[in-house]
Design brief:
alpha/beta, six-stranded mixed sheet, globular, hypothetical protein tt1805, 119 residues, single chain
Length: 119
């Protein structure tokens, strides 16, 4: 069973703060099942945007875990902003969370293009 979007965001932000990072909810979406986008900002001003991984990236072992894919990687803030604006036109109920951490580590599951989890 998959946890709700608002519970996932709450747990994510608490983990980030407890590790000494920063997190802010830029946009609240649908509490139950809103799509979640995570904008990672780095000290050098570069950004990476993570969005929901396609359903084809899930297997029987995922047990409802949320998986993400990189939509924009190590880019200028404008590139992330363009993708976010496009996604908001398509899905106005999405969540957008900004995090400031150098490494996402095991904060959330990220899949590669083949759907395999990155470690």
């Amino acid at each position: 069973m998959r946890i709700t979007s608002d519970l996932f965001i709450s747990a994510l932000t608490r983990r980030i703060f407890s590790a000494g990072g920063y997190a802010a909810i830029e946009r609240k979406g649908a509490a139950e099942a809103g799509a979640i986008f995570i904008r990672q900002r780095r000290r050098d001003g570069r950004e990476t945007l993570f969005g929901p991984a396609p359903q084809s990236y899930f297997d029987s072992e995922s047990s409802g875990e949320r998986r993400f894919e990189r939509r924009v990687s190590d880019s200028e803030p404008e590139a992330c902003a363009e993708v976010i604006a496009r996604e908001m036109r398509f899905d106005p109920d999405l969540w957008l969370v900004e995090i400031e951490v150098d490494d996402i580590g095991d904060l959330f599951a990220v899949a590669d293009e083949a759907g395999h989890l990155l470690k």
